[in-house]
Amino acid sequence: MAGPSVQARPRVGDSLRILAIAPTSFFADYGCHVRILEQIRLLQQCGHEVHLCTYHSGEDVPGLVISRTWPLLWRRELEVGSSPYKIAYDFLLGPLALRQALRLRPHLIHAYLHEGTLLALPTSRLLGVPILFDFQGSLTGEMIDHHFLRPGSWTHCSLRWLERNINRWPAVITASSHHAADFLQSDSRIAPSCLRVVCDGVDGTIFRPGLLSSGERQALLEGLGIPCAWPQDRPSHRCIVVYLGLLTEYQGMSPLLEAAAHLRTRRPDVHFLIMGFPRVDEYRRLAHRLGVADVVTFPGRIPYDQAPRYLALGEVAVAAKLSATEGSGKLSNYMAMALPTVAFDTPVSREYLGPAGCYAPPGDAQALAEQIEALLTNREEARARGLQLRERALQLYSWEVVQGQLEAAYSQALTKGGLA
């Protein structure tokens, strides 16, 4: 059977056959997976055929064509972040991707994460198909964040060498922020011509303010176990601070709970709604130790299609992420909801939120608490910041903008691969 290199070559705007490789437990309602899901939906809307290869663990999504590896008999849980079990899944995912490529004969391989690019290389070389690598942060940086790797160790140095080489293989690398693109240029000496920024987009008609009536809000709060009638010694109105994302240390969970402790006595009207997974029980125990269990609710994993309703409960949003290289897709959702947002002062947070964001030094729980308190105290300023953030989201992070960025990246990858 003839490979793509001898077929009729696609032109920009033609319908493409795309093999997507995602070495993760897709789908699991968090940022990395939301980016994959929405990009595939966007590509389908543009008329492209997308076939996704991923791990066995994870949920199917209606409308997506997904092939999964064989299961691991000794491991059924979702793989979130670095895990030794991912190595076993990757050994199964590589041959699966090759089999599907031989059947599909793709025009392009869209590889997510470094592992996906590594697994895509044999298929790319065999069929002469270009790789587009969706960079979502440093591979070794993530391993260090998850305490899976010790900085400066022999293993760390070896994997850094592998990571830098993987960065040089694809025809094009897409990054979710200009900061990530700059990191790739400085760290791996990737030429600017090989880099494209493809932002984390948001649908402003779905993520929007004013979603809940007062009755719907009350019912949702009661469903979360947050009483609407407070004890006599507390204010009748409760201000909800929302977070939605992974519950991990590099997402700033400990400083966030410490900030709740700082606010506990000064603002008895504040309640933290911390939504996401994994490690829910671990952070519940930390909240008990810090004495804030009565003002913090952990509902666990929130389905992505329900995220706007739960975020609509908030008066302030918080993003305490500490990672230096990863994106922060939750910010575009907060912004579209017109939620005034407090974040740790990282380059990615600055890039997304701009001058309308409120910032605290990374890891500083007291400063985080002070910024949250300032927004809750000055309601007019908070409202103005929220509206500015929504306008910024609609201008910079709409799916129409992302579609143009993605199409430009595909066109460049096909051109460099000799297919356009």
Structural account:
The structure is a single chain. 44% of the residues lie in helices and 15% in strands. It has 15 helices and 13 strands. The chain has helices at residues 31-45, 85-104, 113-127, 139-145, 154-168, 178-188, 214-223, 253-266, 280-289, 307-311, 330-336, 347-353, 365-377, 379-396, 399-416; strands at 17-22, 49-54, 65-68, 108-112, 131-135, 172-175, 195-197, 239-244, 270-275, 296-300, 316-319, 341-344, 358-360. The strands form two sheets. Strands 3-2-1-4-5-6-7 form a seven-stranded parallel beta sheet, with helices on both faces. A six-stranded parallel beta sheet has the order 10-9-8-11-12-13, with helices on both faces. Helix 2 (85-104) packs parallel to helix 3. The relative contact order is 0.13.
Task: Record keyword descriptors for this entry.
single chain, about 425 residues, alpha/beta, 7-stranded parallel beta sheet, 15 helices, about 15% strand
